[in-house]
Amino acid sequence: MKKYFKKDKPINDQIIGFKAKKAHYPEIGVFKSYDNGIEEVYIPANIDAEQVINIEYWFEVPQK
What we know:
Blueprint: E1 15-20, E2 27-33, E3 39-43, E4 48-51, E5 55-60
Antiparallel strand pairs: 1-2, 1-5, 2-3, 3-4
């Protein structure tokens, strides 16, 4: 199910799937929320981070 950051936020360090605005396919990343208020999704596959404002939607990845 698609979720949107305006309504729902993942838990810190939660693994999520997400679709960035300029990407063709969804990606997998880890939601990070820092003490200074910065929120981003870390993408281990390419050692990069995507800003929340660039994400169209996100969805939960089942843990098991």
